[in-house]
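Suppose a colleague, Dr. K., hands you the sequence of a protein chain of 171 amino acids and asks what its three-dimensional shape might be. Before reaching for any lab equipment, you can write down a predicted structure in C-alpha cell form. Begin with the sequence itself:
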Amino acid sequence: MSNLAKFEKFKDQVGRRLKQLKAEKQTVRFWWRDDDATHWTPQLEQLVTLSSKHQTPLFLAVIPNNVVASLAEELKDKPLVSVIQHGYSHISRALEGEKKSEFPRHIALSKVEGEVANGMEKLKDLFGPQFQPGFVPPWNRFAQEHLPTLKKLNHRWISTYGQSSDPFYVN
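The predicted structure, expressed as C-alpha cells, is then:
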C-alpha cells in the first residue's frame, strides 16, 4: 500500500470516529506539533499557513543550538504558533546498542541542566512570549533520572513515547 493510500485510509478512519464522537456530543482534545525546526522552509511556511487558515494552534519544537534568528522574525506575527524546546543540539549520545537519545542516563546531570537551561534562555530571547516552557526531547526519549532538572528549570511538561499517569507528561 502506498503512503498516499495509507494516509487516505487513516483520514477515513479518523473522520468516521470524529463523526461518531460528534453524534455522541463528545469532544476530542489533541495538539499539533512539528519537530526539528531550525529555520524557515517552504514546508514550514505551508504548515504555518494551514494553522492560520484553520485557526488551529501549532506547537513548533525548535532545536535551540541550531536555530537561526531569522526564524523568530518569520514567526513574530503568527500568534497561533507557540515555540517549545526540542532538546539542545539534537545529537544522540546513546551508548552503542541503545536507542537514540540526546539525554540518556549516563550524561551528567550538570551537563543536562546546563544545556537545557542555555537552550531555554536562547528560545526565550529569540521568541519572547511565543516560547512556551514545554520540552520535547529528540527521538522522544529522556532519561527518567533527568526529569527533576526540567521541573527545576520551570518546564511545565514533557512529551515522550509511552503513557504515564504523571501529569507532567503530555502525549
